[in-house]
Fold this sequence. Notes:
By secondary structure, the chain is mostly helical. The protein is built from 10 helices and no strands.
Amino acid sequence: MTTNPVSLRRDARRNHERLLVEARCLFTERGINAPLDELATRAEVGAGTVYRHFPTRDALIRELYDTGVDELRVLIHDLDETDSAWRAIERWVEVLSGWLIERPYVPAVMRRVVELDPEYRPLADIQEFADALVARAQAEGTLRAGVTSVDIAVLVDMLGSLGQYGGAYAAHWRRQLAIVLDGLRAREGAGALPGVPQAFGEFHDMSHHKRAED
Length: 214
């Protein structure tokens, strides 16, 4: 009997996607060092299938990072279609924070990727969009003067860290979101922000190098 190569490719793609989905769940629950044999069990495939798709744990981690960046690009594209710059800022903080809260393994993935490839920085185009959005919101008078895209990225990172509390906190984090957005909104009498804003390169290195216990 001849095996249909189209069916084989379809099955391989299906297994690949299933492994990524289950890896996200497994790493969310147990961290990125969770046993890959458990991944095979969850995905209902043999251990050999896992290693055919991801020869090493680092290969899996790198793909999770890259697919995450692709997801962020889709989110950014949706923001670019928002008429009001302030509304885009609101959606940026809300959507990206929620995305991180649902993926508490992401900081560990980021740290591991920079260990594998210290010069890898696929977020440069996203940063250009963020800078332009901040400038547009400040020009329309809705975003507080002095706020930079890195300031907002730090706030997103802080909100996203609430994912460490697990699903039990899912119903509550938007309270902190509202406080953060209120602090970002331009208002009469707002004082100047203290200190010097951090450069994107410094923020990138900081966020990718921080330790799990930080």
